[in-house]
Amino acid sequence: MKVISNSVETTQKLAEDLAAVILPGTTILLNGELGAGKTTFTQGFARALGIKRPVKSPTFTLVREYQTDQFMLYHLDVYRLGEEGGAEDLGLSEYFNADSVALVEWSQFIQADLPQAVLVIDLARLDQGETDQREINIHAVGAQPTKILMDLEQRYGTSN
Ligand SMILES: Nc1ncnc2c1ncn2[C@@H]1O[C@H](COP(=O)(O)OP(=O)(O)O)[C@@H](O)[C@H]1O
Ligand SMILES: [Mg+2]
């Protein structure tokens, strides 16, 4: 699925639609350079799930935890690990379980901890970063992410 977003609102609307079809046990990888919109997407996603606390990037803590009505939501930003290396044995895989939902920024730095099944969201600036335009590509690996992506496509298609 590919979406061209021209505003924060459009990116967060997509995140809201994803929140509406998400299921516990889903791990979402948010890929893209600094400023691409990974945290902005997460903010829209969390807000749609009723999170009132401000959602900030957990750069120093690695993980922030939020309780939704139905499941724990984990927001990981492991950018820091890329600089330091040695992300093994941090026990981060506990956040990727059947009962919760995790969003991960810079997941390439914890490759070994990631589950097989993931929903991958690639965000990229267009126009050399001079505008608010973003290209957002979403693909699924595994059964549950595939179902969620199909539900998202249907929902996004009918709400726009
Ligand atoms: N279409 C858009 N989608 C997402 N963010 C956008 C968009 N246009 C402008 N922005 C801005 O780009 C920045 C994205 O920052 P952030 O979400 O923290 O990126 P990341 O977490 O990928 O480093 C924010 O300042 C946001 O307001
Ligand atoms: Mg971020």
From TrEMBL:
Source superkingdom: Bacteria
GO cellular component: cytoplasm
Pfam families the UniProt entry points to: TsaE
Example of a GO biological process term: tRNA threonylcarbamoyladenosine modification
Coiled coil feature spans: none
UniProt cross-references to InterPro entries, sorted A to Z: P-loop_NTPase (IPR027417), T6A_TsaE (IPR003442)
Compartments in which it is found: Cytoplasm
Segments passing through the bilayer: none
Gene Ontology MF: a single term: metal ion binding
Keywords noted in UniProt: ATP-binding, Cytoplasm, Magnesium, Metal-binding, Nucleotide-binding, tRNA processing
Presence of the UniProt keyword ATP-binding in the record: yes
Keyword Acyltransferase in record: no
Entry similarity comment: Belongs to the TsaE family.
Name of protein: tRNA threonylcarbamoyladenosine biosynthesis protein TsaE
